[in-house]
Design a protein that fits this description.
alpha+beta; four-stranded antiparallel sheet
Length: 196
């Protein structure tokens, strides 16, 4: 822009030079702003899309909020909330008795083929079916599933198990969790294979 008067006495060349200079100065700024707009995941008409890092941060925040001390009958939160559920910590452990034959004898080896767990208004389910404790997903994917908080699950969950166990008093499956969410187990139906 400074060299424009020196460039020429021709008015057309100066006009083209000014337009070119303005465009070259503004284009990088406009491109940078457009890049910020395009990479923004939150649009007013679309639900937000969370990345793995953001999901991890949210879960970390929720776990940090889970442990609070009750002082004088009240709980103080770091952030204001419109709805809060507060309860005492409790770990429940559910495991079956070892399988026995009708005459009371044990087989040489037993294998849990499948177990059907009937749940009612359950929000979290952590099960050890021989491979260590694992969270069992209770939500089915479909339209609108990720746009709402998890609803309590009622129904049957089928879990297949692998491997044989020697006849010990160890349970074939075990439920142990201290997650502060509702859990109701109505029944368990197991399918076993016994080697006599």
């Amino acid at each position: 822009m400074v060299v424009t008067p020196v460039l020429s006495d021709h008015e057309g060349i100066r006009t083209v030079w000014v337009l070119f200079s303005v465009f070259m100065l503004k284009f990088p700024l406009v491109a940078l702003l457009w890049w910020f707009i395009v990479r923004n995941k939150e649009w007013p008409v679309r639900p937000p899309v969370w990345s793995e890092r953001e999901t991890g941060d949210i879960l970390t925040y929720l776990l940090a909020e889970a442990d609070r001390v009750v002082t004088g009958g009240t709980v103080t939160l770091d952030e204001p909330a419109s709805s809060v559920q507060i309860g005492l910590p409790y770990t429940h452990i559910i495991e079956p008795l070892p399988p026995t034959a009708v005459d009371g004898s044990y087989g040489r080896a037993v294998r849990l083929i499948e177990a059907v767990y009937k749940l009612d208004n359950t929000a979290a389910f952590r099960l050890d079916s021989g491979r260590g404790p694992r969270d069992v997903p209770l939500r089915q994917f479909g339209a609108g599933v990720l746009d709402s908080p998890p609803a309590p699950f009622s129904g049957d969950i089928r879990i297949r198990a692998f491997g044989w166990q020697a006849p010990t008093n160890a349970p074939l499956w075990r439920i142990e969790q201290s997650i502060p969410l509702p859990f109701t187990l109505l029944s368990v139906t197991t399918e076993l294979s016994v080697n006599s």
